[in-house]
Amino acid sequence: MRRIGLLAASSVAAIAFHPIASPSSTDNLPGFSAQSARIELDWESKFDSIPAPDTIRQNMRRLSARPHHVGSPYDHDNAEWILARYKSFGWDAHIEQFDVLFPTPLERVVELVAPTHFVAKLQEPAVPGDPTSSQRDEQLPSYNAYSADGDVTGPLVYVNYGVPADYEELERHGISVKGAIVIARYGGSWRGIKPKVAAEHGAVGCLIYSDPRDDGYAQGDVFPRGPFRPRDGVQRGSVADMPLYSGDPLTPGVGAVPGAKRLTLAEAKTITKIPVLPISYGDAEPLLAAMTGPVAPPDWRGALGVTYHLGPGAARVHLKVKSDWSTKPIYDVIAMLKGSTAPDQWVIRGNHHDGWVNGAGDPLSGQSALLEEARGLGELVKQGWHPRRTIVYAAWDGEEPGLLGSTEWAETHADELRAKAVAYINSDGNDRGFLNVGGSHTLQRFVNDVERDVQDPETHLSVWKRSQLLRIERARTPNDRQDLRRENGELPIGALGSGSDYTPFLQHLGIASLNIGYGGEVSSAGVYHSIYDDFYWYTHFGDTAFVYGRALAQTGGTMVMRLADADLLPYDFTDLAHTVHGYVGELEKLLDMERDSTVERNREIAEGVFTATSDPWSPTSAPRVEAVPPHIDFSPLDNAADSLTRSADRYAKAAAAGHAHGAPSDAVLARVNALLLQSERRFIDAKGLPRRPWYAHELYAPGFYTGYGVKTIPAVREAIEQRDFGEAAQQVTVVAAVLNSEAALVDSAAVALGGQ
Amino acid sequence: MRRIGLLAASSVAAIAFHPIASPSSTDNLPGFSAQSARIELDWESKFDSIPAPDTIRQNMRRLSARPHHVGSPYDHDNAEWILARYKSFGWDAHIEQFDVLFPTPLERVVELVAPTHFVAKLQEPAVPGDPTSSQRDEQLPSYNAYSADGDVTGPLVYVNYGVPADYEELERHGISVKGAIVIARYGGSWRGIKPKVAAEHGAVGCLIYSDPRDDGYAQGDVFPRGPFRPRDGVQRGSVADMPLYSGDPLTPGVGAVPGAKRLTLAEAKTITKIPVLPISYGDAEPLLAAMTGPVAPPDWRGALGVTYHLGPGAARVHLKVKSDWSTKPIYDVIAMLKGSTAPDQWVIRGNHHDGWVNGAGDPLSGQSALLEEARGLGELVKQGWHPRRTIVYAAWDGEEPGLLGSTEWAETHADELRAKAVAYINSDGNDRGFLNVGGSHTLQRFVNDVERDVQDPETHLSVWKRSQLLRIERARTPNDRQDLRRENGELPIGALGSGSDYTPFLQHLGIASLNIGYGGEVSSAGVYHSIYDDFYWYTHFGDTAFVYGRALAQTGGTMVMRLADADLLPYDFTDLAHTVHGYVGELEKLLDMERDSTVERNREIAEGVFTATSDPWSPTSAPRVEAVPPHIDFSPLDNAADSLTRSADRYAKAAAAGHAHGAPSDAVLARVNALLLQSERRFIDAKGLPRRPWYAHELYAPGFYTGYGVKTIPAVREAIEQRDFGEAAQQVTVVAAVLNSEAALVDSAAVALGGQ
Questions:
Q1: Number of domain units in chain B
Q2: How far A269 CA sits from the closest chain B CA (Å)?
Q3: Domain span holding position B371
Q4: A468-506 burial, b if ≥16 CB within 10 A, otherwise e?
């Protein structure tokens, strides 16, 4: 990390321990006194020069040399190798093993049985010149983990992305999927949503294919000529109902350790209700070409050289899935550097190590950089660095099937984590481009500071500057652009849904979390979860110089060092309160829009708009008349958000005053830090979200019908979206209570810091 | 036409001779006294029952039996048959012949010469079961009429739709087309724009192909399974630079009659500068697949199973075009019913009869209905109907190559038309669906009235009601929807650009014009200008029951009857003034937006947005810095539009007062009608538009760079778009003068009608 050109000093009110400007300097490092900032920036500067692209490349080459999915020999081998590396870096490291349900395929059949016969090959061919693509004996076949077993035959119906709105469109065409096998394209939701919604509508089987429009030649040249998915490439992946809970389907809420209470297979609610298989576009094309029925709506049409039909009609398909449902071991590597003065405050950093096949991009581009980051911190310790807090680095196993390694570890150590965790910082696959950060909004300001201090390796701008310019380009209004142009401003971070290992920390335990990674240019998404996501691909099309790997190590390492060393934990509640106000406003607007659109739609149904505009030769029916949503009393949420704003102001003033009068005493800092450490925990409601108690964070959750996509204030938002307005009104009070509890904690921290 | 259910009486201010409500009734027919309205509605009712779908079917079968392009034996045969039909209907009819330049192909070659060899077949195969598709000996080969001859070889560059913005995008990728052959897809502009813009940028040849995304299997099943363009289907068509002038390229402004002054080929500015050929997507696919260079931007990618590259690179193409440039005869059929009391006021109605091949959809679906409409009017005359004004029906030849028949006739009879023409009503291809009307805004209210009186044959709503409901469905804002829901409101009509035979009447001579046709559901656009646009196609996928053909005859016939019989010509200047105000507002907003976007873009260039967000591995350059547009004095236009509004109000009051005090005398009506007849003529500026004097209407013109798409107040709008702000300011005064002249005429009419 290189310190870059001075920018204009901040003109906004000081709202943290130190006023925040850019870039970081000794009198401008939030959470640090001038003296401790000088020491910190010195160590960060030393750290910055350590991560070496070539070492990251060597890590990837070694870890991706053979397929390393859960239960494979090389998965265990990699864990042992990572463990040895940590030990060589001087860390206190060990492996924690869990025994988890992980089905692997025994039989897979997809065949068109009418009007002609075609058998899908379900096989990705080796590519000449790509050495690991031919390791067929060790590759997991293409399949969707946690698909139910089944042997079904039925007419084929095309359901677009297979999300609820797609079934509403089918209904308007008079099409039911009852007894049918649906074919959905990847995209538009997390894949596990597709069989879930299909089963809710009565389908008996589900195929998921990669349409070249979204994922193949329409995106660019295909492998090996280019980086995109070739004709026979298949996206593997889990279809467990992760929005219910992550981790081992048999041990929700508890670690999958010997003696743990385990559900039976029949009791495990995250296993699909119907069989599912993923297929390539090469295998999908004959199926889609054989279909009849109405032509699919324009938005539904992919890039295959066929007319997309909805079915059902001539095309009938036979689908068979049978798995080995045995338990497999997973191996998390856990490494620690003990804190000097606050060993019971943990800063946690993780990235998974298991892949679906060779997994060079996902996850090894991140894992290889993480290892290099850990080497750097180990070097600093050897040079005399003593982090104030304990640092925990983790290489998770079993992320691909369902965040198994991270979830089982978090569940096993839940009490200790609730007491000690300051933050969890996650990464996963890493590519070239822009830094993407999502996470807890108490850390938004902290993230902006770090972004100003890390250099983009190809443009030599700070990653903050490059991100700012990207957002200016994409801004929708002149006002948005004006806001973005403030050089001392903050770039908002996104909220987290799911899709990587932060979920158990953030949404189950209430630990402030971040997810970081570079991307946005050519990415390994083009060969995602296929045998082609390997070292050959990554060193031809990915971050071939591993300079974004180095940038990731610099970014993650700097974040860890600052959190581990700060005198005062650098959470910012003004950002939080501002964000919460935004969410509450969105909810109110959402309900108003639902009401307006229901009234308008009902009126259009009554005046005959839908029948008048439908082609009588291929008619679509009008949508259903819906009850007009009632008004809901949002005032508890508004009041609680106001309360949070007042508390945040009070805390900001106390922090600024503390700064003005010299650094607070160690005793004061200890009391305040102990409170701050619990601040994200206050967003946890003990009962959890309706119908999915494992998810207990009242601000952020993956959507029940989006899977990865976040829903903020999910209990209220999803109730409105699902038109359960009674539940929405009831959940308003639950969320308001949580916000009030947070406001009270922030107040206490302000008082402890010497505020009024 | 069937009178349909009573709607609420009008509550808007009476602003015409009679207050306008819906549907038409004896005390509510604009331009008619109660007494004459009773007579009129009685005749209209008689007319309504005459057009017979089966007769329209027989007309189409006969006229489409063989290819009938300009110069073919069957083209002449059809003209003679149409003439005989008119005579049998009791009309006074004759044929007018013109001799025009019409090139036909002698040699056509498209071949890929590197990196591999492929020869395009340039041939549409016959389809079993479709009898006329095999008439190869009489079919015109696929080509673009008025392409320059040429024999060129060069690298291939993909230019998307080939409009100016596409070349700006190419420039950002560092790609020039100098010396290259461009391949553009059909769509996004009129086809003639593509070779024009390509030549402006230095290309040496141009291929235009039908991408299946816009025109083929991505739209639906292809012929003969469905109605859309098959793999080898080709869109023929003219590429003359029609935005300069329509008609015979050798006789701009004068009729192509014996002895007319003719340009040499070299002097004819509407012939392309480079050779052009249209090709099928079957022929295009190997060319596109062979291309290299940057991957095309997402919006540019079609539906072929290839990755779209921009070139230039490996792919080199040889293109050869050579035509027979001889003169061919065209045959317009002109038929008249002489007016009883105002024989020197002409209501003109037309539709072309020539096709590119068998032309069932284009133009015979319209021509066949027009003939049936003429039969109906002839029947009425036999029953004793005496239209007040003269009715002229025309079957134009040579529309496809460049509106040849209509333009040469209009130019030949220009002085008589300027003196006598009340209105020109055009139709062309007709399909199932909604009535589309574009034209002069003085006729907007008239159009709404007729639409309320014609029934949609499949939904049994009035065509006005069905159109209203469609617009409600598509409305963007609640306010727009609210406006549309007024049952006594008016649905705006669109302005006309070009693309059919109204152009010489409206834009060269200043005759109030309308273009009418049904469509919006499955249409013969799917086989547009191919050998498959034939009777077999139309009777399987088109308006197979010919009920929309009947509706077109009812619509056109009713319009003609009302215009021919009205006591007072039913022009409405309030609509006109309202529309003009809208256009002026758009111009002011356009300049403001140009200014804002230039300032913003220049700022983003300066702050490095484009370089920061471009992928360093496939960089695009920033757009060029542009001068910020100056402010322009729009007050002459604002004042003139206000003046027009005042005159329109005055005229509306005079008309209402005239109605209140009993019908005006015949002498008053004659004076007022004589003025009104000239009202559209006032929009003609003798000098014409900058650089294209043939186009002289200051409100409506086809865009210089859109071809068919209209530009309203074109002299100012296009100057702004082309960033010639000096010319824009100068043209403001030209347009203002025309508007003031119109306002003066409307004032005179108000005074003549007895107003203040």
A1: 3
A2: 40
A3: 54-101+328-566
A4: bbbbbeebeeeeebebbeeebebbbbebbbbbbbbbbbb
